[in-house]
Structure formats: C-alpha cells, structure tokens
Specification:
The chain has two domains: 84 residues; 228 residues, BirA Bifunctional Protein, domain 2 (2-Layer Sandwich). Helix content is 40%, strand content 19%. The protein has eleven helices and nine strands. The strands form two sheets. It has a seven-stranded mixed β-sheet with strand order 1-4-5-9-8-7-6. β6 and β7 form a beta hairpin. α2 packs antiparallel against α4 and α5 packs across α10. It starts with 5 loop residues before the first helix and ends with a helix. It binds 3,4-dihydroxyphenylalanine. 3,4-dihydroxyphenylalanine binds next to β8 and β9. The site of 3,4-dihydroxyphenylalanine has 11 residues, from β8 and β9. It holds the Pfam family Phe_tRNA-synt_N. Keywords: Aminoacyl-tRNA synthetase, ATP-binding, Cytoplasm, Ligase, Magnesium, Metal-binding, Nucleotide-binding, Protein biosynthesis.
C-alpha cells in the first residue's frame, strides 16, 4: 500500500475542481478521485488491510474527505447549470426591440403605379396586352409591313407559330382600337423584349409605357398639354417640353419629345450634354393606316400616341445610373427604395 498523504490529495483535488471549466472536465476529475479506481476510492478500499489503530484514524479522515469532495463536485456542477440557465433565460426587457424587416414594392412597380395614377386622374384607362404577341399586332397593324426596312428598328425575339416577344407596347393600341370606338384615352405599361447587347442604358427586357388618345379633333396641342402636365405631376417640378421631328411608321407626323433637364433646370450641364433638355419619349399623330387596320375610318378619327421607357423614368426619378440594377435582384440596391 503506497503511502498516501490525504491532506495533499485534498488540496490537489480542490484545486482541480476549482479550475474545471466545463462539466465534461469536471466528470474526469470526479473519476480521477472518486471513480472505481479513483485515488480516494483506493485508499478507502485499502482500509481493511490496515492495522486497527491506523485504520480508525485514516478511515475517519478518508471518509470525511469523500463527503467533502462530493459536496464540492455538486456545488461546481450546480454553478455550471446556473451559468447556462442565466445565459438562456435571462431577458432584458428594457432593451430596444428588433426592427422587423418588411418587404416593399420594387421601384419599377412603384413608378408604374404612380404613372397609372396620374393618367387615370386625367381620364385615361389602364389596359393590357399579351407579352407573346403576333406579327400582325407588333408590326403589320402598326403600318410596318413585312420586308419594310423599319422592322430593323426593333431587334426581335421570334417564337414558334408566328409569335414573337413584343418589342414595344404600341400593339396594345391596335388591339384596343379594334374592339373600342373613339373617343378613347388609354395607357398601357408592360414588359418588352429586344435582342440587343446590354449596357448601362439597354436591357433585353424592359418596360414601356404607351399612351393613346383618339377622338374627333384631338390635336398636337392636346398632346403637349397632357404630357407636360404628366411630367410636372410625376417629377413634382415645373417643366417644359419641346418636340423635334422624328420618324415612326405608325405616326405622322412623328416627333421626339424632350423635357427640361432636371439636373440643371435647363441651364445646361453634363447630364444633358449642355443642352438643357432631356430626351423623354417618341410620339406622334396616329397614322391613318393604323386606324384603317383596326377597322376605324381615318376620315372620322384622329389622335396622338406616345411611347416611353418606364425604366428611364425610374432612373431619372431616383438618379440611378445603370438600368441593369433594376433587374439585378440585389437587395442592397432594392432596400433603398
Ligand atoms: N413604340 C416606339 C418604340 O418602341 C415608341 C413609340 C413612338 C410609341 C411613338 C408610340 C408612338 O405610341 O406614337 O420605339
């Protein structure tokens, strides 16, 4: 029987228990002293082989130590349990609450609704047409016959069975006039597709706003008044518009519409190439052939039509410099609106 110094054993065990950092380690220490082959267990087992006089003294001391150490272990175990409990259960009710992140509408949707709201207030109806369109409505009905070079103005994605992805929203005007007689006021906002290389201002998928107002004596003056009013309401700033001659097969005369540059207020800056004007849309007086193709007599009716990019409008409103951001799905971008 090796000589065992119980006082030393007590000191050592106590120190190790104190140092134990977790329950697993504490159990190891328990095993080391009080397990089946633990140091203290061995002492207790050796008692019966001891001379009587020594046995009484060592026995008392060893049993006291056993009780003492068990208690220490229990205390330490309890402190671990309490620490985890504190961590999990403790709630500081005075802390400010976590803000819930609520989703919101995409900037294009917000602008689409705003545009619809403004035109509706001016008596326009919002109408829709198919994204997979046929050649008739996308081209022929709009006075762009097959083999006409003007078809080159739109790089088209062709589908099967005479269908294509509409290259503009103007076909909706033709569809509407076929079923509805003037006087009429409509706008349509929807997706368009063009087979072209993408860059900061071009996407193969984009949104276009098309508008049409037709009646007995609708003139360019009506167009100018309505579009100027629209821009003022949309940008919430006084603006002027001007028209330059242009060409579209479905309008005659056709024009390109510019608006006072919002960056410099018309004085001239780098955003407007020092002109003071921003190019906003294509427009014109509806071509007689388009009325004819829709079953209306061009001698009875006249009207204006216009088309502009919803993306462009959104980019100007929020000063976004790359159209691709609008289709990136990047939350860092979208969360700003
Ligand atoms: N659809 C034309 C385009 O995509 C834009 C346009 C021009 C629409 C004149 C119109 C219009 O309704 O009258 O380039």
């Amino acid at each position: 029987m090796p000589k065992i110094n119980l006082k030393l054993l007590k000191k050592q065990a106590q120190r190790e228990i104190n140092r134990a950092g977790d329950l697993k380690f504490l159990n190891e220490i328990f095993k080391k002293y009080l397990g089946k082959r633990g140091e203290l267990t061995l002492v207790l087992r050796s008692l019966e082989r001891m001379p009587k006089a020594k046995r009484a003294k060592v026995g008392k001391e060893a049993n006291e130590l056993k009780t003492f150490l068990r208690e220490k272990f229990e205390q330490k175990k309890f402190s671990f349990a309490k620490a985890t409990e504190d961590k999990e259960e403790w709630i500081d009710v005075t802390r400010p609450g976590k803000k819930l992140v609520v989703g919101h509408l995409h900037p294009l949707t917000q602008v689409k609704r705003k545009v619809e709201e403004i035109f509706q207030a001016m008596g326009f109806s919002v109408v829709e047409g198919p994204e997979a369109e046929n050649e008739w409505y996308n081209f022929d009905a709009l006075n762009i016959p097959k083999d006409h070079p003007a078809r080159d103005m739109w790089d088209t994605f062709y589908l099967k069975d005479g269908l294509l992805l509409r290259t503009h929203t103007t076909p909706v005007d033709a569809r509407y006039m076929e079923k509805n007689n003037p006087p009429l006021r409509i706008i349509t906002i929807g997706r368009c597709f063009r087979h072209e290389a993408t860059d900061a201002s071009h996407e193969s998928n984009f949104y276009q706003i098309d508008g049409l107002m037709a009646g007995k004596d609708i003139s360019v003056a009506n167009f100018k008044a309505i579009i100027q009013e629209f821009f003022q309401r949309f940008f919430e700033k006084p603006v002027e518009i001007r028209m330059r001659p242009s060409y579209f097969p479905f309008t005659e005369p056709s024009f390109e519409v510019d608006m006072t540059c919002l960056v410099c207020g018309g004085k001239g800056c780098s955003a407007c190439q020092q002109t003071g004007w921003m190019e906003m849309m294509g427009a014109g007086m509806m071509h007689p052939n388009v009325f004819k193709n829709s079953g209306l007599n061009p001698k009875n009716w006249q009207g204006f039509a216009f088309g502009m990019g919803l993306d462009r409008l959104t980019m100007m409103k929020y000063k976004i410099n790359d159209i691709r951001l609008l289709y990136s799905g990047d939350l860092r971008f979208l969360k700003q609106f």
